[in-house]
């Protein structure tokens, strides 16, 4: 298993738990994202069953945005955006070094992309497109 992708999927799980409510749709979305990254449901279960799991903060900008984007997909999986989920998103943006104003704009932009069902792999192209416009 690729450690970077393993951290990504475990981070999504930990973020999803952060609002105190873990909906079945959130689990389904995390499993789908895990599949896209080459993990099975059994791999995921093994990952979260391991003691000593820590939240990993990516160093690269693109990895941070991809993790936040996947988190937005988890947030939207139950078709409602809870205040606590938004607060969790903002906390993670702060941990990732984003300013509050940037975080608000990033959240809105990522929600729009997630509603369009943009695959995470296409996110980098979308960012480059926005920079060029």
Automatic annotation (TrEMBL):
Task: List the InterPro entries hit by this protein, alphabetically.
Answer: TerB-like (IPR029024)
SUPFAM superfamilies registered for this protein in UniProt: TerB-like
Recorded protein name is Tellurite resistance protein TerB
């Amino acid at each position: 298993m690729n450690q970077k992708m393993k951290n990504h999927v475990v981070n999504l799980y930990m973020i999803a738990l952060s609002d105190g409510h873990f909906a079945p749709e959130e689990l389904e979305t995390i499993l789908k994202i895990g599949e896209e990254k080459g993990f099975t449901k059994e791999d995921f279960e093994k990952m979260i069953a391991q003691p000593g799991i820590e939240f990993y903060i990516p160093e690269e900008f693109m990895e941070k945005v991809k993790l936040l984007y996947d988190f937005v997909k988890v947030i939207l999986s139950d078709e409602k955006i809870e205040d606590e989920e938004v607060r969790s998103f903002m906390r993670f943006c702060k941990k990732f070094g984003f300013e509050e104003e940037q975080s608000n704009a990033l959240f809105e932009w990522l929600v729009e992309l997630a509603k369009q069902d943009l695959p995470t792999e296409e996110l980098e192209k979308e960012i480059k497109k926005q920079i060029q416009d």
